[in-house]
Amino acid sequence: MKRVAPPADVAYVSGDCNERAAEVCSAIPYGSREHKVLSLCFVDPCDISIKFDTLRTLSTRYIDFLVLLALHMDAKRNYANYIRPKSPKVEELLGSKTWRDRWAIAQGNVVPFPRFLAQEFANSMGPRVLVSSATHNEGGTIR
Q1: Which residues constitute the domain of residue 132?
Q2: CA–CA distances in Å: residue 3 to residues 6, 7, 8, 27, 39
Q3: Distances (CA, A) of 114 to 29, 41, 132, 137
Q4: Quick one: pLDDT at residue 136?
Q5: Alpha-carbon distance 41 to 34, whole Å?
Q6: pLDDT score for 108
Q7: Which residues of the chain have pLDDT under 50?
Q8: Measured between alpha carbons, how far is 6 from 30 in angstroms, rounded to an integer?
Q9: What's residue 92's pLDDT?
Q10: In DSSP terms, which residues pair with 41 in a beta bridge?
Q11: How many domains, in total, are found in the chain?
Q12: What are the backbone dihedrals phi and psi of residue 76, each rounded to the nearest 5 degrees, phi first?
């Protein structure tokens, strides 16, 4: 960074973002009308281990999110593990204890598990979210 953008104030926080979210927030300056801050949170987990509470913590700052979810790669392959009653993975991803009720309805409507998770994640993120599913199996914008 020093070679490409010497004046940039860049911080690197090593470790599991779910455990270090507060430290990441402390590295982001507070924004105001007079002091503009541009922050981007790029999330690219190899599975569905990102916890929604982590994103909620980070969203206390002015920050844009780009989240790539491994729904076809991980959630589809590990479906049997993730729907087990004691598995916390999907609850932590969505930040919702009631996702199983909605999944039961979605199953009745023959909604694929990855599509259900993408829609639920978009709903958790809020109304100004665009979710795009770009895979070889299915494509298109969810919202």
Answers
A1: 17-141
A2: 6, 10, 10, 21, 20
A3: 35, 22, 12, 11
A4: 39
A5: 22
A6: 95
A7: 135-139
A8: 21
A9: 96
A10: 65
A11: 1
A12: -70, -45
